[in-house]
Amino acid sequence: MTQTITRMNPESLPDAGQAGYSQISIVEPGRLAFVSGQVAWKRDGGSAPGTLAEQMVIVTENLSAALTALKATTEDIVQMRIYAVELGPESMQIGMAAIGKFLNGAQPSLTGIGVTALAAPGLLIEVEMVVRVD
Question: Which of 6, 73, 76, 126 might form a disulfide with 37, Cβ 3.0–4.6 angstroms?
Fold first, then answer.
């Protein structure tokens, strides 16, 4: 992509950079892609695996596929929202480890949201993205 995204972690806010994301992301006017929440569903329609760690593998594969379709990289992600069933310290650790690996050093703005359920039984996590595109 040709335009940069300015990332900020002001001293007046908690240091989100230590956790792998940014408190603020600034993008110049242009085109944005809003990627629907990705869950642990494979293209072939197979059911979601039972553990969060297994689901995160599929979710990050789906996120990568969306970026490829957009001809974008993780550096082009402006914002992510992560919805997790039974959000707690253990699920945060598992989810953020997988997200950190997926982001590979990129630090978009990120919000984690605990929910009681997702779109179908057995789904434990859903991740959506806003991506800057050319």
Answer: 126
